[in-house]
Amino acid sequence: MIVMGHGILEIVLLVLLIAGFADFMNNKKLLSVVGLFGGLYLLWMAFSVLKDLPNMRMEFDFIHNRRGGLVWAGIVTSLANPYWILWWATIGLGYVLVSMKHGYTGVIIFFVGHILADLMWYSVVSSLIAKGKKMLSVGVYRGMVAACAGMLMLFGVMFSVWGIRHIVGLA
After folding, report:
1. Collapsing DSSP states into helix, strand and coil, what is residue 156?
2. pTM for the whole thing?
3. What is the pLDDT of residue 65?
4. DSSP string covering 85-126, please?
5. Mean pLDDT over all residues of the chain?
């Protein structure tokens, strides 16, 4: 369901790219602002995770009770990821342009292949989590979450600095 949310967002973006949104997405100033605010958002997420770390348990049912459920979580998670926007503004846009040479059939084949690759990847990840959580203690789980929060901080700083450097013209 999370991949479905991710896919819904990506199909909307794909339609926008085909309709001419590509030039807007590839704007350096836009990417700089996305980098800055995406980085700040990642930092906020990291600090929120660290703040909640002492109360974390290995129960993953909470998301079903949130508004929108797992599909909405896939949309929000994709939008919150600065890499997602940068990937689509660079690599993804290149794939779309190549696939457009083959008409709508090429675009559809690209999109279906892309979503199936996402589904396969996230199926492997979720299977490993489902099997692995039985082998993890709460302490090890919290350590892994803390390490992920540390990585979020690192990426948040990197994106923010990159965005600021490009906004002020230092890069």
Report:
1. helix
2. 0.64
3. 53
4. HHHIIIIIHHHHHHHHTTHHHHHHHHHHHHHHHHHHHHHHHH
5. 85
